[in-house]
Amino acid sequence: MDSVSTGDNNTSSLLEAQSHVWHHAFNFVTSMSIKCAVQLGLPEAVGAHAGPISLPDLVSSLGLPPSKAPYLHRLLRLVAHSGFLSLHTKLNDVERYSLTPAGRFLLSDNPYNAGSLLLAVLDPVLTEPFHHMSAWFRSEKDDDDVNTTTFSSTHGGKMAWEYMATDAVFSDLFNDAMARDSCMIAELVVKEGRSAFEGVGSLVDVAGGTGNMAKAVAKAFPGMSCTVLDLPHVVSGLEDGGNNVKYVAGDMFESIPAADAVLLKWIMHDWDDEKCVKILRKCRTAVTGEGKDGQVIIIDMVLGNQSLDEKLRGVQYAFDMEMMVSLTGKERSEEEFAKLFFDAGFSSYHINPILGTRALIQVYP
Ligand SMILES: C[S@@+](CC[C@H](N)C(=O)[O-])C[C@H]1O[C@@H](n2cnc3c(N)ncnc32)[C@H](O)[C@@H]1O
Ligand SMILES: O=c1cc(-c2ccc(O)cc2)oc2c(O)c(O)ccc12
């Protein structure tokens, strides 16, 4: 191979370029290994042990055959290298492991658990479409929507939310992932973005899933009456959460109950621009009806925040691919959000970048 094919024939540049390709080719192996650790119950076994745990103790508490110890050691090495375990070698030169802060996010009894999101994203339901992404790029849009997304062309023409109603196991996993995320975001929002909710007497969490966000907001603001609107298969059977949280089964494209404020957490990025404008128009009607002059509160990623580091920007772009492959949505820049808001008839907005990769956006009629 000559230097033309590589652009540079300096030895270290060649090796670095090759390793860069390897790093990205093998990223999925790292992800799948972490998934395996979660499925084995490794975070719980490490977390339950009094102090850092050794390999033999881990093998026994996971109930694995002792012959698998050398293999588990190799899994632990990668999971530790990926930042989920700390390695302690001080005690008698025996390797012992403890959970890092990211590792504690994989604990199933952690209310902020992100393991369910990891399991959902790495479930074949969501990974299979990625094998067909290039075919989707080459295919023309068809009238019956079969090829609207890579997800729908992989799953017999079913669009994402339609599919959810047919797969209770995956739907429960996904709803659990959303609910856990809402637990943490609600706490941060109540702490860091409290002013957005002050003075709000009634709130509708539109497409609010199983209601964790609404429950936490209602708890922080006992005078507020909260309604969770979501599809029937998500909210049917859920008991109203205390005095001031109730569930309504419905379609946000049809009607949204009137309220002082409407919350859209992780909704805009699920939909294309046209659908977002439709949802926002319904929200505008909900917060301006009955003489109200309310607001729409959006929690979503905003691309282009220069203070985000490279890793987090990569996370945003990966989410954008997930939205493109699974749904018809996208992650948006401030300019793209502003266009949606003005097209839906709103007059102003304020972005508060208090949630890492995500931001709290207040939109005013
Ligand atoms: C990404 S989840 C977000 C859930 C919740 N807001 C959260 O952040 O945890 C999107 C939600 O939209 C709901 N959804 C999809 N289409 C809907 C519709 N037409 N009307 C109401 N809810 C809908 C789904 O059932 C799902 O719960
Ligand atoms: O990672 C996801 C995946 C989805 C998704 C994929 C397929 C379906 O049938 C439904 C949903 O949706 C997500 C989402 O709405 C979100 O806010 C974050 C992540 C994901």
What's the total number of strands?
Answer: 11
Please state the average pLDDT score: 93
Low-confidence stretches: none
Strand content range:
15-25%
Helix content: 40-55%
What is the rounded distance between the termini? 62 Å
- The shape, in one word, is globular
Describe this structure in words.
The chain has 365 residues and is an alpha/beta fold. Helices cover 47% and strands 16% of the residues. It has 17 helices and eleven strands. The strands form two sheets. Strands 4, 5, 6, 7, 8, 9, 10 and 11 form an eight-stranded mixed β-sheet that branches. The mean pLDDT is 93.
Report a brief summary of the structure:
The protein is an alpha/beta fold. It is 47% helix and 16% strand.
Spell out the key features of this protein.
365 residues; alpha/beta; Arc Repressor Mutant, subunit A; Rossmann fold; 2 domains; eight-stranded mixed sheet; 11 strands; globular; binds S-adenosylmethionine; binds the ligand O=c1cc(-c2ccc(O)cc2)oc2c(O)c(O)ccc12
Helix and strand layout, with pairings?
Elements: H1 3-6, H2 11-40, H3 42-48, E1 53-54, H4 55-61, H5 69-81, E2 85-88, E3 96-99, H6 101-104, H7 115-121, H8 124-127, H9 133-138, H10 150-154, H11 160-164, H12 168-192, E4 202-206, H13 212-220, E5 225-230, H14 232-235, E6 245-249, E7 261-265, H15 273-288, E8 295-303, H16 310-326, E9 332-333, H17 334-343, E10 348-355, E11 358-364
Residues 161, 178, 181-182, 207-209, 213, 229-231, 234, 251-253, 265-267, 270 line the site of S-adenosylmethionine.
